[in-house]
Write a structure and sequence with these properties.
single chain, eight-stranded mixed β-sheet, six-stranded mixed β-sheet, globular, molybdenum, AldOxase/xan_DH_Mopterin-bd_sf, metal-binding, iron ion binding, NAD
């Protein structure tokens, strides 16, 4: 057999066996089939943007199954005989949108739109699997889909609108028949599924792909190829974790080996075929969890629901997960942990002897599986009276590997352990499975407080966690394991103390909900109308084109950067000869090939390191090749030799110790007379605040495409700053800027990360195209993106605050050291942060100093709200500390110190229209804050091991009309009156195009459907300032309005001459009268005094709950009230608020960047270790209100910008969690202390802040 055959969207695809056997379905869809609606990002099954649905016939079934998978890890050769559905195939603008696509667009569930196709296809698979879904089904099914823009709430609402129990406006179930389930792509009739069961025997480039249909065939394949390296393939999901295994000579697809798919229930046990998918395993567990002896299945079911994500569980099987544990004993397999504790066995088939052997999982882990196949798992019936519990404690609520996973099987009767318990732990070290010493001790023990304490100590003492910078601390894992044992034993003892009872329970997360209230200005419709983005349907159907979706040009080459693997070193030589010897690898370029490798400010300092490497991950050169895979292979072959390797400076402390401050960039702001103020205050507190870095995590990684034209370069860039990219591209090849014609189609998320770093890609791709004279596409993979480009600056601040007994803060002194990376240009962020330090609190005397520290890291760049995020953490922490010192609730203390109108802020702005007190008053009343404070206090008094916190936070965000402004060109087509706009702002999900269209439609008095906003093009809209600082939407809209007003004025004489003409006729007569129907306008707002034009104010109430024993937490409720003036589009502005807030939760609670201390390499360079929030990390109850009747006299059309302020509010999540911990410390130690503030305040840091020991345990 020489080909594979399958159907995509009803069309048969025949693939000759000439593509590499490692080709993924995603690569085929995008590079061969031209179906670019399916996106690509992490290639780890961790983000979900690559989701498609597949339909196939399982080996043990006569019924077709349809489900969602991540195409990035699905092997192409595994889909022979399958039917694939992509987002374009289920609906599009020419054939009509699918209800899911319509619904997510209607609910404003898209912003940048890069994740949207994956969301749609995941939901499509869910509806195929379950016709009548609940809201809980929806919330449980989006654990594998990441969205950085929306904050998830509108996506979940859109999907819940298909459920039968959600209280969602517009809820309507879908007729499952509308999904065309089980239709044969050949005949259109119900598919018999005979296509997917055939054997395969393919040979490609010396490697073989087999698909046996029986165990006998499988054995024959393995026997014949006994001397070769064999890969047994099912879901292939392990390749998302262990990426560098192989190469393999033999691939064996197990999907049709019937003997691996079976299920049998006996009196003594339940048996499952080893190829049972985790999704089917869950169904089997749930179907038998009420039966005597198998009730422990409910615990395993709950545990496996948090293994990876839905799409991984759809693809992966039991055997696959267990085989990872067999090959990598250090892997914290949840399947292994839960089954081993239960006493499960496995059946192993020996290929050489053709014999089956039943062995324990403990023996299986140590077994050499060469020439063996795992064929079944056997779960035993447990006797009555056995307590079985399992746990998985993770950095976020879902789709994360465990800090520690654990399972306990304890036979007990009346608090006496009957025999030997089973205690299994994962995440400790490669050898640790059973806590044997603890098991020994607890055998036949009568449980008492003394026994529980001793067991806790024995367990901690016998654990020897592996030390690794990517693992949580050894102490935490030991404490956590002890805490989980205590939870189990506490539950067995069934304490009569109500304060202790919740300690044995896990946190329970109910279905989330949201509420949004806002005012619309109907007199100005369609402006100020709450409406979804115009392009949402196209994003939902995958038809919205991003740079990397553009079709491949003839003779196009693919570029990849060669990165430094040392953090501080001198380059002796770079040898690319081995790389260039690979067929299909065409060029290697480095600093010597650029006309100008160094760039002037404000561009990135340089393209390639030429002599000195300043950070690990710095580009040293660039490979060009015929395919992306070849380019990736080639960069591994480039040999870099260093003549001197130095220890990298990676922390502020190291930089300080080595006197690496950029002293010339130190800045001190003084307000009032702080020296005198210290003499008159009643009390002083001092403390520290520190924060790590944050990666932007835009879903579309950085990409540029450079195409030689007859007299220049056509550059297609994903950038927030087309002007800078054009300048960098022309500079690197020493050509004038008009040599480069730049287009920005749209951007798949930016958050500041594509304002400066995109210049590196623009210069690199342009250099490649200029020198090779061929089109060059430079698209970064996620790891390269994270390693080589900038992030949010870490910082450490010390503070001192003086205040009176009445709670009025009189003086604050702050000394902040910020890690700006290797280049002093990033010191701007230090200075910028100082201006935000007061947030919304009036303090008459200040001294704030900012120091910029050099480290061996990429220069830091803007990340959403680069000034207010660090300032919010510092400022809010200070006021929380003062409240603790005065024994006041922080909410009451902060309220005393809020700005009044007309007071002057830290930077010298007179706050003429300050609404923060009004926001605070209204929100405090709307959110029932006083009553909830009492409820939180009551809960904390009634519970020792669960604690809650509630606080309020503020943001005063200064909006600045900086730089050259934004221009717009509006054209009316005389023949039909349709309108086209080209403007200088970049659409990256913030709704800029929609607001521009709303403004033009309002001025011209035409339906918004008449308006099309075209991509940003340098030839039409040049010389624009970066789309950043939240102002691009309003600035671009004002430019478009200005141009529209010019046109309206030009057409006025024609209107007066023909007062009854409709719009189309008016345009025709204007054209006939030679009226110029194209106008350009540049929005030239001047900066305010001293620099801000106005401030956007917002306030939030955040309530959280913490499990003191584990550190897990959940955001119970968030209420936000914001003054956005007269919102240009309330639906879009609410979406910006939600997205910003959730990104802030990541910054303050879950996201951290870790480095290898020896060579400076970033270790958190993928979805396996870097954890932005997902759907269950958002507030459970989330209410957002826009303040009505507050026009902004200084803003565009009385509005305010909205993109960044809300991120600062989410510091409340950290502070509320910290309050919960401090309440626990007061109960446990009788200490009323204030814990130093560290962000991110992760699950680990939360638990470790408590300071638990065995002496504190009680029954």
């Amino acid at each position: 057999m020489t080909d594979i055959r399958f159907h995509i969207n009803g069309k048969e695809h025949i693939v000759p066996g000439n593509l590499p056997l490692t080709t993924s379905l995603n690569e085929y869809l995008r590079e061969q089939a031209g179906l670019n609606g399916t996106k690509v990002m992490c290639k780890e099954a961790g983000c979900g943007c690559c989701a498609v649905t597949v339909t196939n016939l399982p080996a043990d079934s006569k019924t077709l199954e349809t489900y969602s998978v991540q195409s990035c890890l699905t092997p192409l050769y595994a889909v022979d005989g399958w039917q694939i559905s992509t987002v374009e195939g289920i609906g599009n603008q020419s054939e009509g949108f699918h209800p899911i696509q319509e619904r997510i667009a209607k609910f404003n569930g898209t912003q940048c739109g890069y994740c949207t196709p994956g969301m749609v296809m995941n939901m499509y698979g869910l509806l195929h699997q379950k016709a009548h879904i609940t809201a809980q089904d929806v919330e449980d099914s989006f654990d594998g889909n990441i969205c950085r823009c929306t904050g998830y709430r509108p996506i979940l609402d859109a999907m819940k609108s298909f459920s039968e129990d959600a209280h969602i406006p517009g809820r309507k179930s879908i007729d499952i028949e509308d999904l065309n389930k089980n239709l044969c792509p050949k005949t259109g009739e119900t598919c018999p599924g005979t296509c997917s069961g055939r054997s395969l025997d393919l040979k490609v480039n010396g490697a073989c792909w087999y698909r046996p249909t029986s165990l006998e065939e499988l054995c024959n394949v393995m026997k014949v190829n006994n001397d070769k390296k064999i890969r047994l393939v099912f879901g292939n999901t392990s390749s998302g974790i262990f990426k560098n295994e192989g190469p393999f000579e033999i691939y064996v697809d197990l999907h049709q080996v019937k003997e691996l798919f079976w299920f049998e229930t006996l009196e003594t046990d339940v048996k499952l075929g080893a190829a049972t998918t985790l999704t089917h395993f869950l169904k089997r567990l749930r179907g038998h969890q009420e039966k005597p002896g198998f009730k422990y299945f409910s615990q395993i079911h709950k545990h496996i629901k948090v293994v990876a994500n839905v799409m991984v569980r759809n693809s992966g099987c039991i055997a696959g997960n267990l085989m990872i544990k067999n090959h990598h004993n250090e892997f914290p397999s949840d399947i292994f942990t839960t089954l081993e504790a239960a006493g499960a066995n496995v059946e192993v088939f020996d290929v050489k002897t053709s014999e089956k052997q039943t062995i324990s999982l403990l023996d299986f882990v140590k077994l050499n599986m060469r020439n063996k196949v795992l064929i079944a798992v056997i779960l035993p019936r447990l006797a009555e009276g056995i307590v079985y519990r399992s746990f998985k404690i993770t950095p976020r609520w879902q789709n994360a590997h465990a800090y520690v996973n654990a399972a306990f099987k304890i036979p007990v009767e009346e608090q006496v352990i009957q025999g030997r318990p089973s205690i299994v732990l994962g995440g400790i070290n490669a050898d640790m499975i059973h806590a044997t010493k603890t098991e020994d001790f607890l055998t036949n023990k009568s449980l008492s407080l003394a026994v529980v304490k001793e067991a806790y100590c024995i367990l901690r003492d016998e654990l020897v966690p592996t030390e690794s910078p990517l693992e949580s601390s050894s102490k935490y894992r030991k404490d956590l394991a002890g805490g989980l044992l205590y939870k189990v034993l506490l539950g067995i003892c069934n304490s009569k103390s109500q304060r202790l009872q919740s300690g044995s329970e896990n946190l329970h997360r109910p279905v989330s909900s949201g509420l949004q209230t806002y005012q619309e200005m109907k007199s100005e419709f369609p402006l100020k109308h709450a409406m979804p983005k115009k392009t949402s349907p196209l994003q939902a159907s995958g038809e919205a084109v991003f740079v990397n979706d553009m079709p491949k040009f003839q003779h196009e080459l693919f570029a990849a950067f060669v990165l430094a693997d040392e953090g501080s070193a001198t380059i002796e030589s770079i040898d690319a000869s081995q790389a260039l010897a690979i067929p299909g690898v065409t060029h290697f370029f480095s600093a010597k090939d650029a006309q100008h490798n160094e760039f002037p400010s404000p561009l990135a300092p340089r393209l390639f390191a030429s002599k000195e490497v300043l950070y690990n991950g710095e580009p040293l050169g660039m490979i060009l090749a015929e395919t992306p895979a070849l380019a990736k292979e080639a960069i591994q072959k480039v040999k870099v030799t260093y003549s001197e390797i130095r220890s990298p400076i990676l922390t502020i402390e190291d930089s300080l110790a080595q006197n690496k401050e950029f002293v010339n960039r130190r800045k001190t702001n003084v307000v009032g007379n702080p020296d005198d103020a210290w003499k008159s205050v009643d009390q002083i507190v001092e403390g520290t605040v520190s924060m790590g870095s944050q990666y932007h995590f835009y879903m579309e990684t950085q990409v540029c495409l450079a195409v030689p034209s007859e007299d220049g370069i056509d550059l297609y860039a994903s950038t927030q700053n087309s002007d800078n990219c054009q300048a960098a591209a022309s500079h690197v090849i020493d050509q004038p800027m008009n040599y480069v014609n730049i287009t920005v189609p749209r951007v798949g998320g930016g958050f500041g990360g594509k304002s400066l770093d995109s210049c590196t890609l623009a210069a690199g791709s342009t250099l490649g195209a200029y020198l090779s004279k061929r089109p060059v596409r430079l698209s970064m993979d996620l790891s390269t993106n994270i390693r080589s480009l900038g992030k949010r600056p870490p910082y450490k601040a010390t503070y001192k605050a003086g205040f009176n007994k009445d709670g009025k803060v009189q003086v604050i002194e702050i000394d902040m050291m910020m890690d700006v990376g290797y280049h002093e240009g990033s010191s701007y962020f230090t200075v910028y942060s100082l201006s935000y330090m007061d947030m919304c609190y009036y303090v008459p005397n200040w001294k704030v100093t900012g120091r910029s520290m050099m480290t061996n890291k990429r220069f830091m760049v803007a990340v959403r709200a680069p000034g207010s995020v660090p300032a919010a953490l510092i400022c809010e922490s200070i006021f929380e500390h003062v409240a603790r010192a005065l024994n006041k609730h922080p909410i009451l203390l902060k309220e005393l110190n809020l700005y009044e109108p007309d007071q002057t802020d830290l930077s010298g702005h007179v706050l003429k229209n300050c609404t923060v007190r009004e926001l605070w008053r209204r929100l405090k009343d709307t959110a029932e804050v006083d009553a909830r404070i009492r409820q939180v206090d009551a809960f904390n008094q009634e519970n020792l091991w669960k604690k809650r916190g509630i606080t309020m936070t503020t943001c005063k965000y200064g909006m600045i009309y900086f730089g050259s402004g934004h221009g717009a060109t509006v054209t009316i087509f005389a023949r039909d009156g349709s309108v086209q706009v080209s403007q200088g702002g970049v659409e990256m999900g913030q709704g800029l195009y929609t607001k521009v269209a709303q403004g033009v439609a309002h001025i011209l008095g035409v339906p918004i459907e008449n308006i099309k906003v075209r991509p940003n093009q340098g030839i039409i809209s040049p010389n624009n300032i970066v789309s950043g600082g939240s102002i691009a939407s309003e600035s671009s809209m004002q430019a478009a309005i200005g141009a529209a007003e010019i046109l309206k004025e030009r057409m006025q004489p024609i209107r007066e001459k023909f007062p009854d003409a409709d719009w189309k006729e008016l345009c025709q007569k204007s054209g006939a009268s030679k009226v110029d129907l194209t106008a350009r306008f540049l929005n030239k707002h001047e900066m305010g005094t001293p620099y801000c034009n106005y401030h956007t104010y917002c306030v939030a109430v955040t309530e959280t709950e913490v499990d003191i024993l584990t550190g897990e937490f959940q955001i119970r409720r968030v209420d936000i009230m914001a003054d956005y003036g007269e919102s240009l589009n309330p639906m879009i502005d609410v979406g910006q608020t939600e997205g910003g807030f959730v990104m802030g939760l990541g910054c303050f609670l879950t996201e951290d960047t870790l480095f290898d201390g020896k060579n400076g390499r970033i270790l958190t360079d993928g979805t396996w270790n870097y954890k932005p929030p997902t759907t269950k990390d958002i507030p459970i109850d989330w209410r957002i209100h826009l303040l009505p009747d507050t026009p902004n006299p200084s803003g565009v059309r009385s509005s305010k910008a909205t993109g960044e302020p809300s991120i600062a509010l989410s510091v409340g999540g950290l502070l509320a969690n910290k309050m919960a911990v401090e309440n626990a410390r007061k109960d446990l130690f009788d200490k009323d202390d204030f814990i130093p503030v560290v962000a991110p305040f992760t699950v680990e840091r939360t638990q470790q802040s408590v300071g638990l020991s065995e002496n504190l345990l009680t029954l």
